[in-house]
Amino acid sequence: MRSAEAFAKTRAEGRAALVGYLPAGFPTLADSIKAVDIMIDHGADIIELGLPYSDPVMDGPAIQKAADRALAAGFRTRQVFEVTEAVAGRVPILVMTYWNLVERYGVDRFAGDFAAAGGAGLITPDLIPDEAGDWIAASDAHDLDRVFLVAPSSTEERIASTVAACRGFVYAQSVMGVTGARAATSAVAPELVRRTRAHTDLPIGVGLGVRSGDQAAEIGAYGDAVIVGSAIVNCYLDAEDIPSGHQKLAELTADLAAGVRR
């Protein structure tokens, strides 16, 4: 299932989509699969699977800690296809990954294996369209979405070239710096969405910092998708055990889903 299907549904319902992020393999490989099912059961429209990486440049402390835990347990790149295959079919599944991991695996090979597992596309935070020739060719060959990022610092020319290379949706990085749940949403996010919308009809997802249904409702008023990552990871980092984390995740996802549906 491609992300366009999810956005067609949410637009018909007059609301933003809820996008939930979790690193594959965290808190364990099996429990990352269960966590995705929990998010879908409680209202997530699209899932982002993080590909754990030992040298992140954008991830905040929560996601770094989760990735480290997955890697310490022996997670390997190929296992992201196992998780994808286990959860694909109900909602679009995208992988968010640093580009080095895809390049090392083999760009066309990664695209082919991910498509075969039922994946929808990739979000590539450290890859710009100017340097994405191999990925653009591979995503075309395997019919995958490609989601690039725009930021408050992006020029109009950069926004235009970025959205022209996107397929599926555009990721609006609403705050500068690393990821992490925040008490307040970014004040510059509405302006970034406005600037981006001037260059594309693609849906625009807003990410970095959302941790509550109230914040999801606020962002859903102007964005086409609300992307939540660190708050989801914290459900497990802050829990006494994994079953308690599953319960926290169910409650948080339900709150976020109610927020985007206000």
TrEMBL record:
Active site (UniProt): 48, 59
Function (record text): The alpha subunit is responsible for the aldol cleavage of indoleglycerol phosphate to indole and glyceraldehyde 3-phosphate.
GO cellular component, one term: cytosol
One Pfam family recorded for the sequence: Trp_syntA
Catalysed reactions, semicolon-separated: (1S,2R)-1-C-(indol-3-yl)glycerol 3-phosphate + L-serine = D-glyceraldehyde 3-phosphate + L-tryptophan + H2O
Pathway it works in: Amino-acid biosynthesis; L-tryptophan biosynthesis; L-tryptophan from chorismate: step 5/5
Top-level EC class: lyase
Keywords: Amino-acid biosynthesis, Aromatic amino acid biosynthesis, Lyase, Tryptophan biosynthesis
Family in the record: Belongs to the TrpA family.
Protein name: Tryptophan synthase alpha chain
EC identifiers of the protein: 4.2.1.20
Gene3D superfamilies tied to this protein: Aldolase class I
InterPro entries in the record: Aldolase_TIM, RibuloseP-bd_barrel, Trp_synthase_alpha_AS, Trp_synthase_suA
Quaternary structure annotation from Swiss-Prot or TrEMBL: Tetramer of two alpha and two beta chains.
CDD domains, A to Z: Tryptophan_synthase_alpha
Gene Ontology MF: a single term: tryptophan synthase activity
